[in-house]
Specification:
single chain, mainly alpha, His-Me finger endonuclease fold, 2 domains, elongated
Length: 123
């Protein structure tokens, strides 16, 4: 049995899964997972994320609230058709923009205008 098969067998064992879970809970494991998700879903690096955050002055692309006001990082907004990254948004703006784009709900004129302005600037 070669190294690859042996490693696969270990990773699929109960002991291997427990070791992976312990690692994923560490700071280093979380960072690795985040980088992998950025690369897989958005084809971007951590540096590109940081550069985009800097371009937006550390704020949500729609409401303008600073990223330090939130418990989580700003979400990566992307066009679901082209998969092109448009910017970084807070959770609320990201959710509401998706609902607004789908046409499932009507919003106050001020919010609709903010969404239109954001999308116009990021297409």
């Amino acid at each position: 049995m070669g190294r690859a098969e042996s490693l696969k067998k270990y990773n699929n064992s109960e002991k291997g899964r427990a070791a992976q879970l312990r690692y994923r809970r560490t700071v280093k494991g979380k960072a690795l997972s985040r980088r992998a998700k950025l690369r897989y879903y958005y084809k971007m690096t951590e540096k590109e994320y940081t550069d985009l955050l800097f371009e937006q002055d550390g704020a949500c692309g729609i409401c303008g609230r600073q990223h330090t006001e939130f418990k989580k990082r700003l979400y990566i907004d992307h066009d679901h058709v082209t998969n092109k990254v448009r910017g970084l948004l807070c959770n609320a703006c990201n959710r509401h923009l998706g609902i607004w784009e789908a046409g499932n709900r009507t919003y106050k004129h001020e919010l609709a205008e903010k969404y239109k302005k954001y999308l116009k600037g990021n297409r």
